[in-house]
Amino acid sequence: MTITTTTGTSTAPGPRQTAAPRAAAPSVLRLGLSRGLLETRQFFRSRGQMFFTFSMPVVMLLLLSGIYHGSYGDGGVTTQQIFTTGMLGVGIMGSSLQSLSLQIAGERQNGTLKRLRGTPLPKSAYFIGKMLCVLVSSLGQAAVLLLVGRLCFGVRLPVDAGHWLTFAWVYALGVAGCSMLGIAYSNLVRSADSGAVVMLPMMVLQFISGVFVIFSQLPKGLQVAASFFPLKWICQGMRSALLPEAYARMEPAGNWEPGRTALVLGLWAVAGLVLCLTTFRWKGRNDG
Known about the structure:
This protein is an all-alpha fold. 65% of the residues lie in helices and 1% in strands. The chain contains 10 helices and 2 strands, in the order ααββαααααααα. A two-stranded antiparallel sheet has the order 1-2. The longest helix is centred in the N-terminal third of the chain and has 31 residues, at 79-109.
């Protein structure tokens, strides 16, 4: 009996082995939205940070309203109503430029950014995530401010789509520009403990932009200096959305200047984006 053995290999052509299709990489927008959801969850889980973010402008509004009293313009606009619009501007700048610059400096210092650099997350998606978190937190802050302003000081909420649209685009441009500037400014902050580097210029801007003092009462030179920065235009845009039309005559130009407001805030948003893309660093200066 003859036993025939085979080697187990065959030279006959078999079906062609095709590689499994590779899953498409998620888009920058999708990565940014995912990062933003994560950042937003972390914000709301940090009760101390959330309490400070929401309460600080409200406390300042109540203090200013208890110190200053008066009315301005033909519409009898009260100082409390004007301060409410100013605090909305402070809230936007505080949640974006101020908080972001310190937060990112801290992430750069503790190595969080260095670890993120080793992931597929591009820096543009990181920027989108930060902006989304700022947008959500600042909108919550604005809702609290409007509620306090309405209940305590009779702030007139918009009753037509036009004024709400003004509120929306001023808010969106303010958040976009200040967030980009905050990310770029973080390069100048060595650590999260270097608060004075951020707080001092913010305080100066608040004084010359009509937050603590009625803007039309400021010296002409300070008004001109403030017009180069976004906070003045955010506050003016908020006044145009929430105060009676008669108050527009109290503005330096005698009207709300919506076109110039959009132009200045838009230019700051573009400038902030350019600064972010050209100067952002994942690592600190001493990290090699």
